[in-house]
Amino acid sequence: MENLFSLKGRVALITGGSRGIGAMIAEGYLRAGAKVYISARKAGPCLEAAKELSQYGTCIAIPGDVSSVEGCRELAAQFLKQESKLDILVNNAGAAWGAPFAEFPENGWDKVMDVNVKGPFFLTQALFGALKAGGSKEQPSKVINIGSVDGISVNMLETYSYAASKAGIIHLTKRMALELVRDNIVMTAIAPGAFASEMNKVARDHAELVSRAVPSGRVGTIEDMAGTAIFLASRAGDYVVGTTVVCDGGIASTRGGAIA
Prior knowledge:
Blueprint (H helix, E strand, L loop, with lengths): L10 E5 L4 H12 L3 E5 L3 H11 L5 E3 L7 H12 L7 E4 L14 H21 L1 H7 L6 E6 L13 H21 L4 E8 L8 H5 L1 H5 L10 H12 L10 E4 L3 H4 L6
Parallel strand pairs: 1-2, 1-4, 2-3, 4-5, 5-6, 6-7
Helix pairs in contact: 1-9, 3-4, 4-6
């Protein structure tokens, strides 16, 4: 039981790991004993973040763009140059777009869907062999998709493709999980609420205001996100298959057009 939440000796890859929720998970995994690779589209910030996170353990940057099949395959190839197996994949890279309904553009739709739905599917596909090599009945490998409460309940902001993409990844998690578990790969998802990040500038810059709409009375912290991600990645989460864990302080269960 003392090792229930340990990630010692395990190898993780986190997309969008240079900032926000991805960086929170990366720090948590490093502190729990994992060797962590982080990926981000911009090479400079990715390398800088890996250097900063290295104070907690071994953190290596692999810049890459997961918005295309080619980009997913290239990221997988770069990872496989350094590792023969993968224990934990966190599909965290995300994009958002907001515009009035009558003006919502096709590029805003496609960009979000490509990163938030297509990317997780094809990166997992590209790393299937490494995940299969890393998993066993006794210690399955893990894939954790990052959804959002916006895929569960309605946010009144006009982020149409974002909401659709997050609902999509939650359902895709269920379907993929049934296939992957046959090969000792356990897939789950996390639906975060209000966490301060570059994507959620409102929670970052107006935490006190946002907190009024959160039943728990505050925005999420690194401990909240890292704890949830460690649970799912560790032995503690081995029997949780295809499920989305909502980490939102109660927003999804209660909101009716709140700003969070």
